[in-house]
Amino acid sequence: MRCFVDDTVDLVHNQVMAEVKPLLAERGSDEYPHARARHEALRSWEATESPLDIGEHGSTLRLLTMAVCATSTDAQLGLPKSTRGQWSVKDFVAHLVSVASSSSMASVRPPVSRKGRFWPVLRVAYAEGVAVAQRSLGPRASEPSAVAEVKAAFEHVVQEERVRMVPDAARTGGAQNRPSIEPSIHAWTMLGVQARRPDGARGARLTAREREEQKIFEVALRTWEDDPASAWRTTDVCIEDYHRFFGRNALPTNWEFKIAVSGCKDAFVRECYGWARDQFEHKLDDWRCDLALHLAFLISKIVPHVGWPTDPGSYDLEERLNALREKDVRAAIEAVRTLPWVRKNANGANEESLSI
Fold first, then answer.
1. What is the end-to-end Cα distance of the chain in Å, rounded?
2. Residue 142 CB-density burial (10 A; 0-12 exposed, 13-18 middle, 19+ buried)
3. DSSP 8-state secondary structure symbol assigned to residue 173
4. Distance CA 38, CA 13 (A)
5. C-alpha to C-alpha distance for 103 and 173, rounded to whole angstroms
6. Pairing between strand 184-192 and 165-168?
7. Which 8-state DSSP code applies to residue 345?
8. What one-character DSSP code corresponds to residue 185?
9. By 3-state DSSP, what share of the chain in percent is helix, strand and coil, each rounded to 5?
């Protein structure tokens, strides 16, 4: 499959360059910017580790799409699809075996190219694979069973090499509109990997009544999630689902303003809770309402401290600073340096402006 990937990279390079090279020579033309973008995308795509893989977050697919599409409008529609559209890996391997088992050049059809090195390599690999499979299966093994072993090995290699998209035949146009005998960069077939089968035993353990109750629960749960006024708790929400709850018009039930601050002596905590409560209840259309909900979301998990420092040295800092003379810089720095979270270096010489 590495040979197939190399052939495909060469094919894409040659066909893209045949289209963009004349345009790159005309710097003043309207087509020049897109031709240059295609050339840069082609070079980046060729440098990827697995050029026929979709890539993380679709990165490789984006580069290939930008390289092969003739216009930016076409690129926005995605990688140009072949008439086949999508193939399973099993069907793709069956096509490869059909090509490999024939000695006629006429049997070589896209995605395999007649001009590349893959076909002769494929024929040798297939013949050798069948021979090895027959020897390993024993003298009584039939040829179909050996072919099945080779197909399974080929499927594994396709997935191992992360081949997810292959150039296919394009329509030639004209009266008969026959498919091309060579792969085209303007017709791509996606290879769909079979999904892992779910464990059917889990559903089998449920009775008919239990399955009905499960469906009812799922419907009720979706209704609750979609209702912005329903009761909810932040501790029941997974972090990846936080964004789904920022449209609520009710604070979480584990906010509990009175309970949370009833025994708290820190004025800052009470003020913070009060501000969030008032902003949320009275200014629903204001940006501060969004901030209040975020505050409720976060500090309901660490009630009631709100991240405010509780060490005694912090409480009287403002009084100590007010007692100092206005130009007593050193004394002010030393007072600030008593705080446990303040960085200390060179006796504060590098922090004078920040401390003041």
1. 67
2. exposed
3. -
4. 11
5. 29
6. antiparallel
7. -
8. E
9. 60, 5, 35
Report DSSP letters for 233-279, one per residue: -GGGS-GGGGGGGTT-SS--TTT-HHHHHTT---HHHHHHHHHHHHH
Q: What tokens were used for 64? A: 């290939």
8 A C-beta contact, residue 85 and residue 189:
yes
Rounded to an integer, what distance in angstroms lies between the CA atom of residue 116 and that of residue 221?
Answer: 56
d(CA 241, CA 297): 12
Bond before 252 cis per omega within 30 degrees: no
C-alpha distances out from residue 295 to 229, 254, 288, Å: 18, 13, 10
Q: Residue 69 corresponds to which tokens in the numbers above? A: 């599409």
Read off the tokens for 269.
């905590």
Full pLDDT tens readout for the chain, 356 residues = 999 999 999 999 999 999 999 999 998 899 999 999 999 999 999 999 999 999 988 999 999 999 999 998 899 989 999 988 889 999 999 999 999 998 888 889 999 999 999 999 999 999 999 999 888 888 777 888 999 999 999 999 998 999 999 999 998 776 667 889 999 999 999 998 665 555 555 445 677 787 778 888 888 877 777 777 777 777 677 767 777 777 777 777 766 666 666 667 777 777 777 777 777 766 666 777 777 777 766 665 554 444 445 555 566 777 777 887 777 778 888 887 777 666 666 554 555 666 66
Model-wide pTM > 0.90: no
Half-sphere exposure at residue 40, Cβ-oriented, CA atoms within 13 angstroms:
6
The closest of 195, 193, 208 to 161, measured between CA atoms, is 193
